[in-house]
Amino acid sequence: MNRAAVLTGIGSRLPSRAVSNDELAASLDTSDEWIRSRTGVGRRYFAAPGTATSDLAVGAGARALASAGDPAVDAVLVATTTPDRPCPATAPLVAARLGLSGTPAYDVSAVCTGFVYGLATAAGLICAGIAGRVLVIGAETFSSILDPRDRTTSVIFGDGAGAVVLRAGDPAEPGALGPFDLGSEGEGGDLITVLAGGSRQRLSGVEPGPGDHYFTMAGKKVFRLAVERMSHSARTVLDRAGWKTGDVDRLVGHQANARITRHLAEELGIPPERCVSNIAEVGNTAAASIPLALDQAHAAGGIGPGDRVLLTAFGGGLTWGSTVLTWPVIARPGDGPHETDPHERAGVRR
Predict the structure, then answer these.
(1) Residue range 1-60, pLDDT digits in tens
(2) Right CATH for 4-176 from 3.90.1210.10, 3.40.47.10, 3.40.640.10, 3.40.50.150
(3) Fold of the domain built from segment(s) 180-326
């Protein structure tokens, strides 16, 4: 193969409202110490009322396009678990708001693995010659599906968006995405789920229960499976790329839980100082977690040109996936990943 998808731009957006552990603990039977010790989360960001996933996606996408130095792309992909509506997809709206009306755009639904699946899909478009440049966005407003009374989920997740621009290039150049490994296991679909709202529930003839519209997760089983599937997937792509674990300068796993990241690094034999983690500052942002972590690390100098980077994720479906790249030189215009929500500027508070 003489054509590859090459990373050429990156950007992210967070809502302006930070929610501390103490704020959540005031309404839950928990504490800052309990949350930090079990998840690693210190705070997360929640979107204001009236803000949707597409709003964060547009912000991150605009920054990624500016970073790439070219607003034109041939396709827009949005990975999300929390689309603006069940129908239509969120991506066409995002494309239109970015001035890309007429560009093919569609959503990718693989929960926390969605961004890696989106990268693989974009790479396929580029390698097949269908597209020369693709904008891939991971965006979530997970606060919209969390049960505020459930401390096992409501303390972990947050809202945000991250995006990258990929262009056609040479497989040997910096930024070229390496081999991919993707997988799924539908038998475990009930471990990470929202029971109500789809055709299964609507056509069952049974009214949904009071908590069926909220996100649920079987934490202990998910913990074990996440480490197992991500470590196996990561080793697979390292073997395909001809890398050893000692060659990895930065491990960027899905920011599910600080303990999962730690166990994953131990399983792979990668020193903890080589792990990129932002879960303490933003929580688990699902499909947005990897691009958001990459953008923040890039801005802070935690990832630099020439670094060999391993990406791996695990999410509902069950799904998992990994890829590698050598970090290129990327411009990062602007002043940071935060976006002041227009509703909050008007004085509305969540």
Answers:
(1) 589 999 999 999 999 999 999 999 988 888 999 999 999 999 999 999 999 999 999 999
(2) 3.40.47.10
(3) Peroxisomal Thiolase; Chain A, domain 1 (3.40.47)
Are 223 and 257 contacting, i.e. CB atoms less than 8 angstroms apart? yes
Residue type, 267: E
Q: Which residues is 338 bridged to in the sheet? A: 14
pLDDT of 335 reads 45
Residues of the chain with CATH 3.40.47.10: 4-176, 180-326
Question: Residue 216, Cα to own-chain centre: how many angstroms?
Answer: 18
Tokens of 13: 């957006």
Radius of gyration of the chain (CA): 19
> What local confidence, expressed as pLDDT, does residue 4 receive?
97
The pTM of this model reads 0.93
Sign of dihedral through CA atoms 218, 224, 227, 230?
Answer: negative
The number of beta carbons lying within 10 Å of the beta carbon of residue 256 is 27
Q: Which are the catalytic amino acids?
A: 112, 254, 284
Q: Torsion angle of alpha carbons 194, 197, 203, 204, nearest 10°? A: 40
CA dist 57 and 198 (Å) reads: 24
Give the number of other Cβ atoms within 10 Å of residue 346's Cβ. 9
The identity of residue 296, as a single letter, is: Q
Give the span between the Cα atoms of 131 and 98, in whole angstroms. Answer: 18
